[in-house]
Design goal:
427 residues, 7-stranded mixed β-sheet, binds pyridoxal-5'-phosphate, Aspartate Aminotransferase, domain 2, 2 domains, 5-stranded mixed β-sheet
């Protein structure tokens, strides 16, 4: 890889360099295990003295190519692919949190993440305090405890679409000496590279734009290599790991300590591994990510502008619109576009919303975003239905909100479909 390659080139050529006579594209190595001739060689692999593969739960050549490409595109020192975006979030936190410890998170999160933080992590003894991401730094700082291990937020909140104030959040994380962990699923590395704005760890649901074709569920954790784990607060990274015969991650792996630990300790123990076939599809998806994100963003902006002038629509939320509260921040952090997801309120509330969703033809009612095909959803009755109405509102979901994931079809066809479905919704 040429260090100066731009992201469009990395998306196509990064992560995998075939030698003479080897497959031009990343092969699918659908094998759990790898054969060796000498016991010493296997010992060296287990001792992490040399790179190589011995068991697919811990590493696989197809998955490795995907991880390396994504790490290059984000500008990180390493990545770990996981079986789902949820697994990436869970592991990113458990890598540095244990019972009795604490996390501060923006309240504007994907419903599944909110549930994980509000219900499941507390059962494991890890408490999460939610903060309004628009609150002042002083206000957010009040949520921190001596046991706080990380600050967590989404680059573009799902589905509130608030753009993260990276300057404020990274300054708070620095002051409190905790890593800023950012879920950048909606932005993708093409639209925003959070490490350039002070984030320390980035996670993605690869299920969305990285795959881009609605074929595979997966996730990834990317390590920016910038956090000082040796600040005296993270002994799990500086002190010997008894479960790995005394391995000291920072001492042995330097800036890649966090991501190596996530793999050799947590992935070993929790096994949230992607299948090599899915990694192949994610890698395939990355090839066209820059092109797709350009088109998703252009189409979503055109749809948002159309909806803004429509008589049957009460409000439109898209950070690319001047009317969005995060618009200035979007121009700063998302200069290439604001991704493909937008939300709007339909006149006639829930009843009209249901009619609208049933009337669309090209746009499918699907519990998904980030697909090349346009999708529509009513989050309050689907993805966020496990939350109370209060929790829904706090995570940015109004009861009448319709979410559109604008695809890469011809925008005239998308708008025509919306127009006819809006007409049906008002009857
Ligand atoms: C922003 C965000 N993060 C994480 C997830 C969870 O990802 P997965 O469905 O791959 O587990 C989702 C899923 O919708 C999401 O939208």
């Amino acid at each position: 890889m040429d260090k100066n390659w731009k992201i469009e080139t990395l998306a196509v050529q990064g992560g995998y360099e075939p030698k003479s006579g080897e497959a031009r594209i990343v092969p699918i190595v659908q094998s759990t295990t790898f054969k060796y001739d000498s016991a010493d060689h296997v010992t060296r692999l287990f001792d992490l003295e040399e790179p190589g593969f011995f068991y697919t739960r811990l590493g696989n050549p197809t998955t490795d190519a995907f991880e390396q490409k994504l790490a290059q595109m984000e500008g990180g020192v390493g990545a770990l692919a996981t079986s789902a975006g949820q697994a990436a979030t869970t592991m990113a936190l458990l890598n540095i949190c244990q019972a009795g410890q604490h996390v501060v998170a923006a309240s504007t999160l994907y419903g599944g993440t909110y549930n994980l933080f509000a219900c499941t992590l507390p059962k494991m003894g890890v408490e999460v305090t939610f903060v309004d991401p628009e609150a002042s730094a002083a206000e957010i700082c009040k949520a921190f405890r001596p046991t706080t291990r990380a600050l967590f937020a989404e680059t573009i909140g799902n589905p509130g679409l608030n753009v993260l104030d990276f300057a404020k959040f990274s300054a708070i994380a620095q002051e409190k000496q905790v890593p800023l962990i950012v879920d950048s699923t909606f932005a993708t590395p093409y639209l925003c590279r959070p490490f350039e704005h002070g984030a320390n760890i980035v996670i993605h649901s690869a299920t969305k734009y990285i795959d881009g074709h609605a074929t595979s569920v997966g996730g990834v954790i990317v390590d920016g290599g910038s956090f000082n784990w040796a600040n005296g607060r993270y002994p799990e990274l500086t002190e010997p790991d008894e479960s790995y015969h005394g391995l000291q991650y920072v001492k042995t792996f330097g800036p890649a300590a966090y991501i190596v630990k996530a793999r050799v300790q947590l992935m070993r123990d929790l096994g949230m591994t992607p299948s090599p076939f899915n990694s192949f599809l994610f890698n395939q998806g990355l090839h066209t990510l820059p092109l797709r994100m350009q088109r998703h963003s252009e189409n979503a902006l055109a749809v948002a502008k159309f909806l803004e002038t429509h008589k049957s629509v009460s409000w439109v939320c898209y950070p690319g619109l001047a009317s969005h509260p995060s618009h200035d921040r979007a121009r700063k952090y998302l200069p290439k576009g604001c991704s493909g997801v937008l939300t709007f309120g339909i006149k006639g509330g829930s009843t009209a919303g249901k009619k609208f969703m049933e009337a669309t033809r090209l746009i499918a009612l699907v519990v998904h975003v980030g697909d090349a095909r346009s999708c529509v959803l009513h989050p309050a009755s689907t993805t966020h239905r496990q939350l109370s109405e209060e929790q829904q509102i706090s995570s940015g979901v109004a009861p009448d909100l319709i979410r559109l994931s604008v695809g890469i079809e011809n925008v005239d066809d998308i708008i025509a479909d919306i127009d006819q479905a809006l007409a049906v919704s008002q009857k």
